[in-house]
Design goal:
12 helices, mainly alpha
Amino acid sequence: MARYFRDVWRLRYFWLALVSMDLRRRYRRSMLGVGWSLLHPIAMTAVLCTVFSTLFQEDVRTYGPFLLAGLVTWNFVVSVLNHGCQCFFLGESYIRQYPAPLAIYPLRATLGAGIHFLLGLAVVLVLVWCLNGFSNLPALVSLVPTLLMLFVVGWSVAVCMGVINVMFQDTQHLTEVVIQVLFYVTPIIYPAKLLRDRHLAWFVTINPAATFLELIRQPILDGVVPSPATYGLGMAAALTAAGLAVLTLGKAERRLVFYL
């Protein structure tokens, strides 16, 4: 395992070049460039905030940042799932020419999604600072382990989705349906308290996306460090996802090229 990750790190200039190439190709001849990745969650926040702040009787000054943080995080999840499904097909020409570790290609998808996520998170921080200020700046340091765990989960999910989609190419279409369902059962546009008040707290507990939403929202919006129990759930999600990715790629890596 250590040697495998050393090989991945040794080829860092290769996969960083792939990420750079993806960004340049996506925003080539675009006036806004990477700003388009921010326009979508900001526009969605403006529209949904207008509707749901009234429905949930929430103050726009607090509900707006709450909603934007949720949408930015959710967009990272969606991007990892969608681009993870295609990661090995996009890297097919490289896979056929050079026997690099296959984990590089899901890493490429995760880093691309991560760059957009960090830009969106920066917008959330600016919005919170402008509207409400930060009551406890040191609490923001707790975002560092959260982002590391989220990166591990994203990379692991991209690995699993990529392998499964190569073997069964209807996976990408099924994923689109699952994403739509998960959006409404994850506390993105509504507080998790609504589920807990209706005796559905278990649903929040078993949903890793809900866990990471809390880990991100609490330091930024409430100025508090998340509880050890919440960190424990995030760590469990990261370790479980990483274990599944290792098992999946370990079984499929030598045979995957024959399915492409």
